[in-house]
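Example 3.2
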Amino acid sequence: QELEEITLSPKSLGIRNIVIGGESSPKELKEVLSNKLNAEVFDVLGLTEGLFCYECEFHEGMHIPETRFLVSIIRPETREILKNGEEGYMMITKLYDDGEKPGTPILNTVCGDITTYVSECKCGRTFGKIIYPRREDETISIEGRKFWSGGLQKLPLLFPDICTGKYTIVENRNKSTKIVESYEVKLQGRKTLKSS
């Protein structure tokens, strides 16, 4: 948007690929970036200790370099390892080469991401992949319905004509208040939702 304001065509920049790191991004955001910049957008996923999953050209999940990381999907209450295609919490163990000295060992770490492990991909890579994870602690209740707060980021992308202004998500846990996200959104002619 800022490029357009200074009359520079984003497509004229010659950008071919964009890599977004940290957490998985909404599909709608990637589509907007791709269309505006005429570039292919890829997700990579990581922890504080580094990146460990990457998206292939089919954009249907993120591959795990399984020679370096063991990723299991578990049921959190029992830590039972779930089968291929079942949704649960991601548990990560970093695999080290013989003699390698880790700065921060990662051993059966459950990071709060909810996802599904899939062993095959159309790209033919032999590494399995996880389907775009979402964070459990980013699930909020609005008027009794559960939403992933990251999903609310999609509103301005999906409905640019009616979503302008500002919204704030406030989460109440143990009588404390925390601002989770803040965006400008005005839903013209629609009821305003308040978090509960």
